[in-house]
Amino acid sequence: MMLRLSSALFQRLLVGCTNLKVLYFVAQGLLPPELIDTSSHKRVKDNLIKEVVASNSLTDLPKETSDTLIKDYYKFVMYRHPLERLVSAYRSKVRRRPLSGIDDEQPHYNWLKKKIYKHTHPEEYKEWFKGAGSRDVDISFRDFITYWLENDHYRTQHDEHLMPIFDLCAPCNVRYDYYGHFETFEQDARVLVEQIGTDMTYLRKEYYNQESNRTSFIALNLYMELSDKQKTAVLERLSQDIDFYYHLFPYKRDSHKFILDITKDLSLP
Residue 237 and residue 243: Cα distance in Å, rounded? Predict the structure, then answer.
């Protein structure tokens, strides 16, 4: 992210983190503090966040101006292991709630669940659709990965949770001033807080500390559902992200072998 910047901040330069978006927007006066509930996981409506991002977009500026801002402003990015990040996207956007036939008030990522179900179980989807979605459907991690591997639709949807980090953050094109890590979220977020000149009031750090302690084991259990062929395909698709991750955090090298529960013979391309 770049201080006092906009769309590139969170749409492209920050790896999906609503918590830091809220912290930054409140500090910059772009979100009224009274709208933030620090006791709630959701805390503020996603559409309100999107409105703030859209109204402060680098894409609305001349290219020369945006290039200057990207070059001169402080840039901060928060990383997590790409394989764990993929699991997080599944748990947050797919597994948290089943596919439902209810279409009112923008149900939680129903569009993605429908596409996964239709792609991986076409005949069952037809029956489900004929029945007007009268039953809820749980989407497995294996089905999620199958769809993710066999479709580039996630790119056209511009959903940052499903896009590779290289597409979001352009780490080869942008030299960041600070690279944070999900496992040290609170410590690294304090660096950002100092740059903004605010405090930790609106940062719900407990969620991240708790998540970072168990994500690897959750990921291990989920990736065990995949075949070796699928695991290899996941590594191939994320190889650029993983390679750069190890460049930033060499002490984590080869952690993909633990996360995927693979042998030493199955490694990065």
Answer: 11
